[in-house]
Every structure is written in C-alpha cells, then in structure tokens.
Design brief:
The protein has 218 residues and is mostly helical. The protein has 7 helices and 4 strands.
Length: 218
C-alpha cells in the first residue's frame, strides 16, 4: 500500500500469514498497535516517507517478535540524535534498520523468506514437490515425442531411398533396351538395300517376291 494517502492502518484486515508490509509514502503518524494485532507474523515493515516524529510512536512494534527489518527513511524521527541506537534498544528483535544492522553492515538485496520464495512455501502441503514432478514428467513426454518424430523421419527417408533405387534400375533397363534397338538400326543401315529389304520382310513373316519367282522357275 505505497503512496495511497493512508492516515492510519486501523482498517487493516486480519492477516496472520503476512510477513512483508509496504506502507511507504503515506501520512501515517501513529496507531501502529494495529499491526501487532492484525499482522502478528510480520518480519519486514516499510514506513518510509510517513509522519512519524518520535521514538515512542514505534513502541507498539515491540509486540511483533518476528520483526527483523524496519525502514523509516524520510521520516522526521530519523533526524533525532542517537536515532539508530534508540530504535535498536527499543526493538531488540530488529536485525536491520533502514537497510543496515547495528554494526552498519548492509542487508542482503532480498530475503527469500520475506518474499515468499523460501523452501517452506514451495513444499507446503506437497505442492512444490508435485510441481517439480510434473515438470520432470513433461520433459520425459517431450523426449518421447522427439524420438517418435525422428523415427518417422528415418522411415520416410528409407522409403524414399528405396523408391529412388527402383526408379534407377528401371531407367537402366530402359536405357539398355534403347541401346540394343539403336545397335540393330545401325547394323541394318550397313546392309545392302536388297539384303536390308529381305531382312525386313523376314522380320514381318513375308517372303521376298524374287525368292517366289525362283521357286516357280524350279
């Protein structure tokens, strides 16, 4: 709820599982006891840019035992002398104030537990485990499909190669027959005209008229 002109958090609903609450850039000046009642498991609270002016306003946050990160950037309270020492003293459960711990060590960029990305969330009620099993099964199915596609492609290639080989054999036989016919035609061209005519008649099953006349003379 960032920059929505909130004056208080009195209407905040009961959120027992809420761990991170963003309330920056509003006009909140008091009433933080509501957070202890409605968000008992809060771990991260951002109140930057609000109207918090003194340390006592933060006292209700003592009832949030899991609170370990608090941000108060651009609040007037940060201008107080010994501001950091006073807040750490008031809220001993705090680890980080405005992004740094009591020894001025910077906080990590993100906290998996606060962001809801921790292992407890992933595997709560077995949901995370089922999700990963589902991903693995999906991967196996994809591998099986890929193998089937490869097998089909190989079968098609084998069929095409077989057809090409048969076509090649047929073409060779046709070429051999054409070659034999061409050789016969060339041989016929080399014969004398009479012999060629006689050979043609013999191929057609007829007799040469000259042979018939010779038979009649005999």
């Amino acid at each position: 709820m960032i920059n929505v002109n909130l004056l208080s958090v009195s209407n905040l609903p009961k959120l027992n599982k809420l761990r991170k609450l963003e309330l920056s850039d509003n006009r909140i000046s008091s009433g933080l006891e509501v957070l202890a009642e409605r968000t008992p498991n809060l771990t991260h609270l951002n109140l930057s840019g609000n109207k918090i002016k003194d340390i006592n306003t933060l006292e209700p946050l003592k009832k949030l035992p899991n609170l370990h990160s608090l941000d108060l950037f651009n609040c007037e309270v940060t201008m107080l002398i010994n501001y950091r020492e006073s807040v750490f003293s008031l809220l001993p459960q705090l680890t980080y104030l405005d992004g740094f711990d009591a020894d001025d060590e910077e906080a990590p960029d993100s906290d998996p537990e606060a962001d809801g990305d921790g292992p407890e969330d992933e595997y709560e009620n077995g949901e995370g485990e089922d999700f990963f099993l589902l991903e693995e099964n999906d991967g196996d199915e994809e591998d099986d499909l890929d193998e089937e596609v490869i097998d089909d492609e190989e079968d098609e290639d084998d069929d095409l190669e077989g057809e090409e080989e048969e076509d090649g054999v047929d073409d060779e036989e046709d070429e051999e027959e054409d070659g034999e016919e061409d050789e016969e035609d060339e041989a016929d061209d080399d014969l004398p005209r009479g012999e060629k005519r006689k050979r043609n008649l013999e191929d057609e099953g007829e007799e040469d008229p000259e042979d018939e006349e010779d038979d009649e003379d005999d």
